[in-house]
Amino acid sequence: MKSIRRSLTSWLVCGLAVILLAAGAGVYRAVQISLLNAVDAELAVDASVVRFMVRGDDDEDDTPGSEPDGRRGGGGPGPGRLSGRVPEFEEPQSGSYFQAWSSAGQILERSPSLGSLNLPTPDTTADFSNPAFNSVNRENKTTLRTMTFQVSGGKGRSRRPGRRDAGATIVTVAKDLNSVDETLTSLAGGLALVALLATGGAILLVTISLNRGLKPLTTLGNQSQSIDVTSLDARFHSAGAPAELLPVYSRLNDLLNRIQKSFDRERRFSSDLAHEMRTPLAELKMLSELALKWPDESGPDSHQEALDLTERLESMITNLLALARWESGEADLKNEPVNLASLVDDCWQRRAPAANEKNIVLQRDLDDAPTWNTDPDMLRHIVDNLIANAITYTPEGKQIGIFGHADGIEVANRAPGLTQNDVDQFFDRYWRLDPARANNSKNVGLGLSIAKSCAQALNLHLSARLEDANVRFFLQKT
Amino acid sequence: MRLLLVEDTQGLREKIAHALKRSGYAVDTADNGRDGLWMAQNHDYDAAILDIMLPELDGIGILEQLRKDGIETAVMFLTAKDAIDDRVKGLQSGADDYLVKPFALEELLARVQALCRRSHGQASPKIEIADLVINTAAKSVTRNGTPIDLPAREYALLEYLAHRQGQVVSRTVIEEHIYDEFVSPMSNVVDAAIYTLRKKLAVSKNSPPLIHTRRGQGYILEDRSQ
Fold first, then answer.
1. Most buried among A119, A259, A354, B72, by the most CB within 10 A?
2. What one-character DSSP code corresponds to residue B75?
3. Cβ contacts (< 8 Å) between B8 and chain A: which residues?
4. Is the pLDDT reported for residue A222 higher than 70?
5. What is the tens place of the pLDDT at every residue in A28-54?
């Protein structure tokens, strides 16, 4: 499972380790370079001494009687003489060495401090007018820093024909890098220790700061655990939450709002359904019990009443089933031409007695009503519901208007006291103007909700608008 | 016993009222919460049966207002809501009983009877005055072991007096609690009923009279033989 804590810790620690490694390497390299530079500077001093000595030897060689060959033969000016002047080249463990070669590669001189050691022979044919620095690993593991340069015969020498001027004397001065190596080794150790400590500290710091930083998330998690179906009115408390989480809090609370609303609606739906079904059922039961208890009182009236109640329950169940079936898309739809004007007239004809009872006047203008290719039964259901709804809610003696438009029909009626909020809820299941239901009505409040579902199934658009205490329903082709 | 029934579904209201009347209760009805509250505030009912979902003012609203006004009429809720939450809410708001639709008529009658009994401080369904025994559950009356057959209205009158035994009950109160429509002041319907009742309670020559007249005040049911 992914863990913010784990991935952040590993990223931070790994990143820090890489940075420390790079920084350590940089420091190590810088110190190494500066130490080598220091050694090189010392070598340059040694070199100038040796150069001076070699030159000096040459000068001495110039003394009468001295042969150039004499030097090669080991007689005349010798290493002993040369190094004898500089004690650091004398002692075997001094760490300072030099060796000189002729351009032919013959060893001319070597410092006594070298003992049995030989410095690596440079390429004597190369040009060493610019000194070359090198690090040489010796077998006994101490490293040498060498500086190879050439001591030319010099201007004076070249002026002397017949002297060895075919090439310059190649000289290598060298120094042991023991102390440098030791310094670098302890530096590396120190750096490693620092890196190790820093990494350890970083793990600790990261863990602590993550714990602190993630605390709001833990709080959020705990809060969310306490919310379930029974406590949907609870909200996340963003007090003390960091700014980054505030949008999350507000989204979560919005989500809870929506869930609570839909839950409330469902609850209201089932409680309304219970009321709608139980009330006629209670009436029916009461009717039967009265007839049993006082048989002398039951007559055709009570039988008719029982029949009415049963029909009411039946239509309620039919509506519910139709709604469920249409919403789940189970019903097969027909596709036939339906003339809206004649459909409206037919529906009105069936509802006319109820309208007459309330002295409702129909204002009909269906000349523009179109003919649609659609499912006639479902369309009839929609239109019938709209008309039944209009008759139920139109005050006595008022008008209902049914108008045909090019894109559909409009059913309008007076609706005093209706608010926009009511209109917004028109298509909710079981919504009714009066929450306690109108008496003796076969209309169950499911009507508009079903009509809306049916319209959707037929790709029609059913909407309602409130204008000057008139409510206008529009059924249009989308 | 006078009952108030507030139920918005006309058919159900008429049927319940009819059943209650046939069982000997005087019943007033209202079809909305506001009228129901007004009636409960202005008349002395032995019990009220309220639907919870009512137009204008719901049953719980009526009950709360009554309790606020210090009216302690026993109240039974009648409702289609059967969730435990709804029942608890109903009872917590101060209702004495709760009946879920659809209900059995006999259960409604039994509960209404228990409600009336309790509202008169009578826990047991049996009331005994001297050798007169009234079983309010069975609505049966015996005197000295002899069963007395009484029509619903007369039984209701006897039970009402028995609930208030030893107290003077005025004609108006009897009219209010026993008779459905308010009888005219000139009517002697109460006197006539008392006369019939007295005759029926005199099962033998040795039976002492139990219903006494206090002139100008009303009637009193008590045992004066000791």
1. A119
2. E
3. 436-437, 439
4. yes
5. 999 999 998 998 898 888 888 888 777
Look at residue A160 in the predicted model and tell me its pLDDT.
43
B81·A275 Cβ contact <8 A? yes
- Nearest CB among B15, B32, B100 relative to A287 is that of B15
d(CA A237, CA A223): 8
Best mutation site among B7, B9, B32 for testing chain A: the one with the most A CBs within 10 Å?
Answer: B9
CB-based contact A436 B53, cutoff 8 Å: yes
- Quote the CA–CA distance of A83 and A98 in Å, as a whole number: 9
Tokens 């329950």 correspond to what residue?
A313
Pairing verdict, β B132-135 and B140-143 = antiparallel
- Report the pLDDT value the prediction gives residue A378, as an integer from 0 to 100: 80
Task: List the single residue in A with minimal CA-CA distance to B31.
Answer: A439
- Residue-wise pLDDT tens digits, A90-149: 777 778 888 888 877 888 888 888 877 778 888 777 777 788 888 887 766 678 888 888
Q: Which residue has the higher pLDDT, A265 or B199?
A: B199
Query: Residue A119 has what DSSP assignment?
Result: P
What are the two backbone dihedrals, phi and then psi, of residue A3, each rounded to the nearest 5 degrees?
A: -130, 125
Model ipTM value: 0.70
pLDDT in tens, A292-339: 888 888 788 888 888 888 877 887 787 777 767 766 666 677 788 999
Q: Is B11 on the interface with A (CB under 8 A)?
A: yes
Closest residue, chain A, to B51 (C-alpha): A436
Interchain contact, B11 vs A294, CB within 8 Å = no
Residue in chain B closest to A308 (alpha carbons) equals: B11
How would you class A7 by CB atoms within 10 Å of its CB: exposed for 0-12, middle for 13-18, buried for 19 or more?
A: exposed
Report the 10 Å Cβ neighbour count for A40.
Answer: 17
Contacts of A294 in chain B (CB under 8 A): 22
Dist. CA A284–CA A92, nearest whole Å: 127
Interface contact A283-B8, CB threshold 8 A = no
Phi–psi pair at A170, nearest 5 degrees:
-95, 125
- Amino acid residing at B221: L
Q: Please state whether A225 falls in left (phi above 0), alpha (psi between -120 and 50) or beta.
A: alpha
This prediction's pTM = 0.50
Q: Which residues of A touch B22 (CB under 8 A)?
A: 293-294
Angstrom CA distances, A190 to A24, A27, A196, A197, stand at 10, 11, 10, 10
- CA of B136, closest CA in chain A: separation in Å? 19
Q: Residues 432..451 of A with a Cβ closer than 8 Å to B: which?
A: 434-437, 439-440
Size of interface A-B (CB pairs under 8 A): 74
- Residue A340 is predicted with a pLDDT of 92
Pair of tokens at residue A252: 């979560």
CB distance from A367 to chain B under 8 Å?
no
- Please state, in angstroms and rounded to a whole number, the distance separating the CA atoms of residues A433 and A278: 20
What three-state secondary structure class fits A399? strand
Task: Look up residue A402 and give its two tokens.
Answer: 């049914």
- Sign, Cα dihedral of A131, A132, A133, A136: negative
